[in-house]
Model the fold of this input.
Amino acid sequence: MHALLVEDDDRMARALGTALARRGHTVRRVGRALDALRHVHEAEFVLLDLGLPDLDGLELLRRLRTVCDAPLIVVTARCEERDVVQGLRAGADDYVVKPFRMAELIARIDTVRRRTGAYGVRPGGGAADGGARAVRAGDVEVDPAGRTVRVAGSEVRLTRREFDVLALLAARPEEVHSREEILDRIWGDAFLAASRSLDVHVAGVRAKTGRPGLVRTVRGFGYQLGSAAAVLGEREAGR
Ligand code: CA
Done:
């Protein structure tokens, strides 16, 4: 997804930008309130520092809220309870105080986006926006409407959950999905048993399609739909 990062500190912006990019997000970073207002319309979620050089962050937050309702998380050094309350009242979806742990911030972003319905697919694999288009990765076509998967033109039968996992990844192919997110949305919870089950289902998808590159493992984090090159490359290599 596309993030707008409003942060005037270069080091902080670099660290956040890198962490977001690693999760598959694209990021526009701005250091001034004026530029935040100019670019907020393109954002699918917003990270907002309150200490900016040209406008008070709370005032900017109020103005952003009049033109955009994308999920917004305040990331700031202001930690007084009064500041937190004002931030939430002004329309922030969450509030993270610096210094923070990057993993915690990423988890909060996932939670806020899930809560605010920023995802395209609901548990069970149905599209939330009705725009359930078929997605291609190499010679694999995933059709969420018909719940079918075709490999090189021939239909492959997956179990319901195998299909749900694949459809979830295919709905946002540019994005890496955390294990927690996948478990939460398909199993409804992140139990240990379900966690092992997720790996089994991913293995099933790879084996049944005969395309091991169709699902990319992001070690220690989660999964992503494989690129066309990964899907086709491994097939060539396997010959
Ligand atoms: Ca600042």
Notes: The first strand starts at residue 2 and ends at 6. Residues 85 and 148 are 48 Å apart (CA to CA).
